Structure formats: C-alpha cells, structure tokens
TrEMBL record:
UniProt source species: Halomarina ordinaria
CDD domains the record matches: IGPS (cd00331)
Entry's family note: Belongs to the TrpC family.
Name of the encoding gene: trpC
Catalyzed chemical reaction(s): 1-(2-carboxyphenylamino)-1-deoxy-D-ribulose 5-phosphate + H(+) = (1S,2R)-1-C-(indol-3-yl)glycerol 3-phosphate + CO2 + H2O
Record protein name field: Indole-3-glycerol phosphate synthase
Domain Indole-3-glycerol phosphate synthase: residue ranges: 27-238
One GO biological process term: L-tryptophan biosynthetic process
InterPro entries: Aldolase_TIM (IPR013785), Indglycph_syn_Halo_TrpC (IPR054875), Indole-3-glycerol_P_synth (IPR045186), Indole-3-glycerol_P_synth_dom (IPR013798), RibuloseP-bd_barrel (IPR011060)
Pfam families: IGPS
Its EC number(s): 4.1.1.48
Length: 262
C-alpha cells in the first residue's frame, strides 16, 4: 500500500467500512465474459468502448438516482455500452451485491464489480465478470490477483501513478485502469491518464477512469491510448431514457463531431 500521501477523509471512511464488512460464506467460481474482447468489439463496430457505471450515489456527487438498476443497465446497453460497472459498496455508494446479480442476469455484456476489496475472502461476495483491485489499497497485489483468477475473475487493477502502474504490471495485471481522480484530494485531472498510460506495455488493456463527461473527453482519452472508458456520473444523470441518450452521446463520440460543432 502506498502511504506517501494521506487519503481524503471520505476515502478513509470507505476503507474503514470495507475492513469491517462481514466475510461472505462459501466460494464463488465464475466463467467470465471477456472485458478486453467486448471493448475491442465495440471499437471494431465504430463505437467508443464505454464501460457504463450503475452508481446510485457517491461521496463526490449530489443526490441519488433511485431508478431501477436493471432498467438503467439495459438503457446503458441500448445506448451502446460495451460493458457495465456496478457499485456493490453499500455505505457510501448505495450499492449491493444483489443489484449486481440482477444486472448481470439481465444483460449479456461483461459486468465489473466496483468495490473496495482488501482481502481474498471478500472476492466471494458475488459472481461478476471482472473485479476491481485498487493497487494503493493492497499490501499483496500479486496475491489478490492470484486469488481473483483462481475464482475465474478477470481483474481491473486501478492505478494513479507511474509507480503504481509498474507495480501492477510486475504483479501480472493485464487490464489496468488509470484513475484520473486523486484519492488524496479527490481532484480530477485528465492529464493523469495521458502521463501514466504513456509508460504502459502494449499488451495491457488500458481503461481511463473518472472525469469523463463529454465526447471531447472520450476522444482525448482514446487518442492517449485508452482501450476502454469507465463513465459513471455523466451517464447516470437523468431518468432511464436520458441514460440511454447520455450513453449514446459518448459511445458515438468517435463517429460524430456534434460536440465541436455546437
């Protein structure tokens, strides 16, 4: 775990809740849908490879979206999302493992479990195609990667710095997310992806995370090497029909110039 900068109080609170969460019983075994294949297929189809996030609320957003998560997930897929991310952290994001199960049963695209997983036994909470592992929070990233793969999961390893990228690659990560949000100050800077991604090996699937809200942002991250784009708040704004439109606006970013012509 990287302790060079203190975490934001909101992040410390999330981690404290994650440490205290009850350990699930039993052990999952997953046959995953391939996230890299889904992202590549979307790009080949002329769509920006968006991972749309079902996120009821978060410490960095105002209010909550109370629409049915399954309806929202289907709306995102209708809008062209290549994959979905579902929050399962309950205390700060309003998520649940039950929501992820319902969403995964309702769609055919890969589904990422977005949570703060700190120990191998926490991986057994629910079946998903991909799990998020945040490099900064893990003392034994190779061990968590191995534990995830033993259960059949693909792992999206999240980093924020070049040092964390090297740690992830050395641990064997083949899907890496670069978070544009600084977990110390919770500030977003899209330069982060451009700076970190420049040092990533060619055989790593790169996902740009946080702060993406416009077609211009999508094009910028794609030009910097993003194979996928994780988008939550910008897509979740509005009701179900608006979610479809929000998703389509971003997935069609590479084939339209509507943003620059307005």
């Amino acid at each position: 775990m990287d302790n060079e900068q203190p975490l934001a109080p909101a992040v410390e609170s999330i981690l404290a809740a994650a440490r205290d969460r009850p350990v699930p019983e039993g052990r999952v075994s997953v046959t995953p849908r391939s996230l890299p294949d889904a992202l590549a297929a979307a790009a080949a189809d002329g769509r920006a490879p968006v991972i749309a996030e079902v996120k009821p609320t978060s410490p960095t957003t105002d209010g909550a979206n109370d629409d049915d998560p399954v309806a929202l997930a289907r709306a995102m897929v209708e809008g062209g999302a290549a994959a979905l991310s579902v929050l399962t952290e309950p205390e700060h994001f309003g998520g649940s493992v039950g929501t992820l199960t319902r969403v995964r049963e309702a769609v055919e695209v890969p589904v990422l479990r977005k949570d703060f997983l700190l120990a191998p036994e926490q991986l057994d909470g629910v079946e998903a195609d991909v799990v998020l592992l945040i490099a900064r929070f893990l003392d034994d990233l190779p061990g968590m990667l191995e534990a995830a793969r033993e259960r059949g999961f693909q792992a999206l390893v999240e980093v924020h710095t070049r040092a964390e990228l090297r740690e992830a690659v050395d641990a064997g990560a083949d899907i890496v997310g670069v978070n544009n949000r600084d977990l110390a100050r919770l500030e977003v800077d899209l330069d982060t992806f451009e700076r970190v991604a420049a040092e990533a090996p060619d055989d790593v699937t790169l996902v740009a995370e946080s702060g993406l809200s416009t077609p211009d942002d999508v094009r910028r991250m794609r030009a910097a090497g993003a194979d996928g784009l994780l988008v939550g708040t910008a897509i979740m704004a509005g009701g179900v029909e608006q979610v479809t439109a929000n998703t389509r606006r971003l997935t069609e970013a590479e084939t339209t110039d509507t943003e620059t012509n307005e």
